[in-house]
Structure formats: C-alpha cells, structure tokens
User: Fold this.
Amino acid sequence: MSSSTRNTNSTNPSPKKKSQGDGSATFNTGNIKVFTRVRPLLARELDANSNSDGINSLVSMPPDGQTVVLHSDESENSRSLSGRKPSNRIFQFDRCLWSFDKESSNYASQDYTYKIAGEEMLNNTISGYNSCIMAYGQTGSGKTYTMSGSREEPGLIPLVVDNLFDKLNFISKENELIKFTIKVSFFEIYQESSYDLLSNSTSSMNDKKLKIRENSDRIPFVENLKEFEVSSFEEMMSLINKGNKNRTTAATNLNLNSSRSHSILTIKLIQERFIDESLTSCEKIESHLRLVDLAGSEKSIATQSIPLNGNTSNGNNDKLRQKEGNKINNSLTVLGRVLTILSENSNKTVKSTPSVVPYRDSSLTYILKESIGGNSKTSMIACISPIDYDETLNTLRYATITSKIRNKAKLNSTGEASKININEIISNYEKEKNDLLSYIELLKSESENDNDSNIKNSKKLENYIKWQDDYINLNNLRNSINFKKLNNKLNNLNIENEELLKNLIYLNKMKNENTKKLAANNNLINDKINNALNHNDENDMGLDLLNKMNGVINDKESLVSKYLISI
Ligand SMILES: Nc1ncnc2c1ncn2[C@@H]1O[C@H](COP(=O)(O)OP(=O)(O)OP(=O)(O)O)[C@@H](O)[C@H]1O
Assistant:
C-alpha cells in the first residue's frame, strides 16, 4: 500500500520573514515564533487503511515554506469527528516543516528542524537571553520525536546540547577571558504535581512531589529541584537519558509510548566575562534555555490503554489513562486560555489596561509564566498529524494565537562589572584545602569498615580533587594572561627599537649633509685665501683678511667637531 501527498513540487524553503501583517514581527521585537511540523503516516495508520488506494495527507505546505493548508476531505481519511462538512483552511507561520514523506525534496529532517527551530534559540541563550522551545500538539503527533528523537535520528535536545558545547569551546578558544558554567535540571508535571526527573529518591510519589514557589521578583520556580553542573556532551546526555527513563509514559491506542506528563528540561548557562586582564572585575551573565515537551491533547476514547499480554480486561489502566487524560486536557485548556489573553494583551493599545492572566490556574502555566509571557525569547513547534482534520485544526488555531504573543526578553547581565578579588578567592581555596586535608586525616583515623564514613571520605576526596582542578584552572588562566602581558611588553619594546633606529638613520643623514657643507665652505675659504695671497703685495689689507678668514675657519671647525661628538 502506497501513501501519496498533495505536496509534490515544493522545494526546501529558504529563510524569510512572515508575509502577513498578523502582529508577528521579526523575533527581535519579541514575538513568540511558531513553527509547524507534519509527521509521516504511522504503521498502524497504514494498516488501518490497507484496503484503500492510498492515503493522502490532509495537510499540504506550498513552496513558500510559511503556509500550511488543511484540506477538507470527505473521504474516510479525514477522520472528522465533528459531523460537519470541513472546509479548506490556510494558516501562516514562521516556518512550516514537511516531514510527511522522506522521499520529498522538501523533507524536513531532524537536522533541518534543528537548524530552523533550535539554533536561533541556542544562540539567544549564549547571547544572554532566556529562551524556550516547546512542542505542542495532539497525542501521537510527533512532539517527543521532534524534541528527543531516537538514537539514529536525534531530535532538538541532543542536537542543541551537542552544538552548545561546540559553540562554547569555540568561544573559549577565541577569548580566554570568559568562563562558562553549565547546569542542568529536568522535571515533569504529572497530574498537576511536579517531580524531579533526575532524583534518585526511592520514596513514594507523594513524598517526591515538589512545590512551585515564587522568588522575590515574582518568578515561579520548582523548590528543591536538583541542578547538576556538567562539562561535556556525554555528561549532559547521560542525565537527560536518565530523566527520560523516569518520565511517565504509557501505551495508548494512539501512541505506544505516550508521554503522560509535561516535561521541562532547563539548561542554565553562567558566563563570567573578565573585563580586563587583571582579573579583578567581571560581568556575570546568566541565561537559560528551556526545552518543553508537552503531553498531547487527547480524546478519552482514543487514548484508552492498550490491553497487555492479550488480557482484554484493562479497566484500572483505562481509568488511570482517563484521569491522566483529563488532567492533561485541563492544563492544556488553561494554557490555551492564558495564551489567548496574552495574545489579546499584546495587541491592545498602550492606553488600555491589560487583562489579568490566570497563570496560577494550572501548574503548567504557572511554571511557564516567564517563558510564555515574560522575560524570554520563545518558540513553539506545533506538531500535527496528517490525517486528523479536527485535532489538526485545533492545533493550528492554538499556534496562530501563540504567534501573536509579544514577549519582553532582556539581556540577563549584571550590567555593571562586579569587583572580584582574585587573592581573596585563592586564599579561600587554600583555607578550604587545609580544612579538607585535616578532615581527610580525621576520616583516615576512623574505622575502615565503616561504609558511611567511606562514602563521606570519598565524597570529600572528590571535592578535594575538584578544588585542585579549579585551582589549576585558575592558575592556568592567570599564567596565560601573564604570558599575554609579557608578549605585549615585548611588542612595545620592538616598537620603541624601531623608533630609535629611525632617529639614528635621520641623524646620520644630517651628519653627511653637514660634512658636505663643511667641505664646500673650506673650498670657498681656500679660494679666498689664495685670492688674498695673490694680492699681498698690494697692502696689509690682504694679510688682515687672511687672519680673519683663519679665525672663521677655526670657529667653524670647533663647532663641527662639537656637533659630531654630540651624536
Ligand atoms: N517526523 C517524524 N518522522 C518519523 N516518525 C515520526 C515523526 N514524528 C513522529 N513520529 C513517530 O510517531 C509516533 C508518535 O510520535 P511521538 O511519540 O513523538 O508523539 P507525541 O506527540 O510525543 O505523543 P504523546 O503526546 O502521546 O506523547 C512515534 O512512533 C514516532 O516515532
């Protein structure tokens, strides 16, 4: 059985601005960027239609790369549950990604999706802006595939992490006065409660619940969420893979591996930019990139659990899936309400009062407050199925509302350079080292069979090693800066030498010219002496002139010899 598509002649779209005046200007003005991506047909969808001639995609994407057409289709493939006759709908977004058919010339691969939807957000984060990419769409529409992908076809998250390290390594090589620190945290919102996906805790789900609080700037955060410092792609991916394994998923009729929770991965980047080579003051920039894989909107019948091992009685699982589905739908309904109000507020005139945004109505909107309505450059990838008219229409409407939201992203810099005292840092390190050394001595004297103490011991040793690394890094930084200073001095000395050489050449030239003038003067004087001698029989006047001339010669000679001595 073959699949076909209406989109046969489009080419890979080139980047360009949205043409419609729908309030979504370029990203610099702060609008949420919106992309849509259509997935291919799945094996079960092909099987279910094995008797038909082939399934068309209800979605097509013309070559401009920014338009998506949702076609009415009265055949069974439309799967319209509304009963009404659907009509063709046209939508425009920042970019429409065609992943329906791998053979198509404009097929949007995982790498291409990263280039279009991921790279700009990563660059924003490195430039010091909070950024966020979230995947939205009905269940089974390709959100997790887009965000995480598979080992063979890695999605946005692994590609972002890979490129993050590449970019930071490049910057560090170019500029040794920047120090980067990367931290990662990962949590899920399941049935309105937050859980740390990186926690090793074995306590009950109830005990593992984390609270959402607000900081002094009224920005919500997950209390006690663990944050891990990482320094390589492998380290970061091993944490993310651990988090993905901990995420709540289940097999449903629509997706064998359906995410039953919203997951939020946060990569925090701290940059310390030393203002000058003395290393005494630095600007600190702290930004984060949030990667959000939302749970899919769903109809309860469609997401009943799949009977396992041939067991048809699956009542409890069905109930749980339904309860999960209701919570997911509720939070997505609140998200829709919040996005609508934000979009209306963004398009109100300056004088009118903005409506209150009900962020607190769900944990999801509360925690995403800054990303969807505050200090963040944000993009949404609206994932759509090629054969579900009603759900695709809903998703595209949602996405259109989102594209009209204007956020105010700020550069998260300390602004003024904060003073740091390098000697103080080193003496603190030294104090810490001495404390650790004496602690290690103490531990050594404790029982060797005591497991707890051994664990503590090794932890402390780890800390000690980390301290040593930091100390060495700091010294390396100082050494390289000292080396740079010496190099500068050497360059300056070379420049001074060049100046001296130029002066010497000039003085030599002057000396030669003066010697020539002196010889010419001598000739002139000799001529005059001869002239006078020739006339000495005439009177004493000639002798007198001769004596005067001799006096002039003596004066000139002594002047010249003084000058020559001086150079
Ligand atoms: N662009 C794509 N190319 C190939 N396969 C895809 C693509 N998008 C999705 N799929 C496949 O479709 C199925 C459903 O995708 P996925 O699990 O990503 O959906 P989801 O939107 O995350 O669903 P849920 O909300 O239930 O978690 C998976 O088998 C996935 O591999």
Q: What stands out?
A: Confidence is low (pLDDT under 50) at residues 1-28, 76-81, 300-313.
